[in-house]
Amino acid sequence: MTVGNMGSAELFDAGTKGRGLRATRGLNTGEVVFAESSFSAVVFDSFATQVCHSCFRHQANLHRCGQCKFAHYCDRTCQTACWEEHKQECQAIKKFGKAPSESVRLAARVMWRIHKDTGIVSDNQLISVDQLEDHVGDLHDKDLKQLNTDVQTFLDYWSYGSRQHSLDDISHIFGIIKCNGFTMKDQRGLQAIGVGLFPNLSLVNHDCWPNCTIILNHGNQSAVNSTLHSQRRIELRAMEEIPEGEELTVNYVDFLNVSADRQKGLKEHFYFECTCKHCSQHIKDDLMQAAADSEGNKPSADKVEDVTAFTKECLEKIERSRTEKDYQEVVKLCCECLKKQENILGDTHLYRLRVLSIAGEVLSFLRRFSEAAVYASKLVEGYMKLYHPYNAQLGMTIMRAGITHWHAGEIEAGHSLICKAYGILMVTHGPNHIITRDMESMRRQTEMELKMLKQNEHGHDTMKETALKK
Question: What's the whole-model pTM score?
């Protein structure tokens, strides 16, 4: 049932996929299809003291709620902005004695808001929250056991006068959160720090090669005049030209897995069979599993299988060393693994890309930028052959590669990569996102440094020529 409307998208029957959204007009690349504030959202337990519970920014020296001692905020402005959402939660935490898990906290916030505003909170909301799919009947035994535990905790935690809910109603809300919860990242896009429920976004179906991307805009609460503040919201942005009537899609899982693994993950977590073009036709699976091809000489299938098995074992060792913060050992293992893969696994093979990614990240952390830059360049080359040209992950990877080259003193290469990343992020994040603004500053800085470098080189060459003439 459609209960609202949006200028650029409408609800429609997507056949076997159920409900979906489609464009009501032609959309341009980078255009915001719609923006939506969260119906409810919570910070993950592990970031409760590091992330503002209002704007979801990663900050130092947060101020703690004086009553529940759990919620943390940037300042009084953020705390005041969040009070309506936190008020019932604050009382419940004090009564319960501690904050429950994020899933229980989010379910309670959803329930409190339904009580206060019903399941529809704006004219643009296309569907009531309680009409979203829950897939409770499809849950696996392990998930069902966790659901029952969460429901019992919820009953102990919940407080709203004498109003109580049936176990089915509560289970329905938990199911909706599990299937439709959107993972929210910090302002730099580096860490997943919370989860929110966005009703309109929940109607956008999956495609492994989508035409839209989702970005979290953390809003702005810094203006002196509170009327100029903007809310935390998601933005659905077009990744390509979308004609009127075409279905709007996003990817629920990272494309960088072979089609069978993507389908398995989607079935396990979202309870549907993906029949998109890229899965049905196994597009790019060959590249993701490619063997090296040196002047037409390919390694045997047995050799590829042996190196693949070696890489799997090596990745497990690498992960253990990362957990133990033994970064020198991580670098050593990565180098050994990459050497073993040489002339065996192709440049776009997923296992090779995973090792390159870890090696570049750890070497940058160790400030060994020249070495890191080599791996970063190879990673970018592989990603560009696999990802959609306006994929946000591709843009972020190119950005990090550009910064690495810049720190390594390779200003021209760094500037080129930063400009390329800026072009992608202008589409995926837009000009006003903090990451894009940071990229613009870096682009100007590297451009200035590059001009100075070339001027110095020209001056040096002129002096050299003058000296040789004497």
Answer: 0.89
